[in-house]
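Attaching the record inline, Q. Sequence:
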Amino acid sequence: MNLFINYLVEDPFFFFAWILIVVFSICVHEYAHAYTALRLGDDTAARAGHLSLNPLVQMGPMSLVFLAMIGIAWGSVPVAIQRFRQAWAGAVVAVAGPASNLALSLIFALLGAVALLLTGGGLSPDVQLFLRLGSVANAVLFVLNMLPVPMLDGWSVFSYFFPAMRRITPGQAQHVTLLLIAAIFLTPLGRMIWATGGGIANIFAGLCSFVLGV
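Structure, as predicted:
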């Protein structure tokens, strides 16, 4: 089985670049959840230390191990929806995480365009790869997390508009989530998510290049 950790030997730059980008991006994602929840009346995540970019807090050791081994990871923050002052607050908190990843995708693309402008097109290939990975990875995180699947942010967002979705039982939610994980690894769904994220990153790159004239 070809594990992600093999890149540590085969391509160390890619291995460490990917880990750095994913850890940073997930921590920003979870921070966005915690900060937005606090502003809307729920300090549960803030009191638990999630107003931080510390990966041990936002992701946990097991997630970091999975990231090093297979290249994927996760994070989570506690939210008490009963503390929110408005009915729509839960959806706003949910969308805050993916929105932060979309913003990071644009920022990485902008940094790439600025770097090309400042170097006259002579930017190091490693720097170009790092910034490109940053933009694509965050766009992929946005797409993945906005899927209307239990345990993903998209479920909380769409269930606000479609209340019937809230009637799913915990057992049903677990089964749907497991099916999604299997589909990502065993069907073209994973490639579709990656391709969609890459398309978004391409749009951002093209837009930034056009604006800066590079």
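The mean pLDDT is 93. The chain has one domain: 4-212.

More tomorrow.
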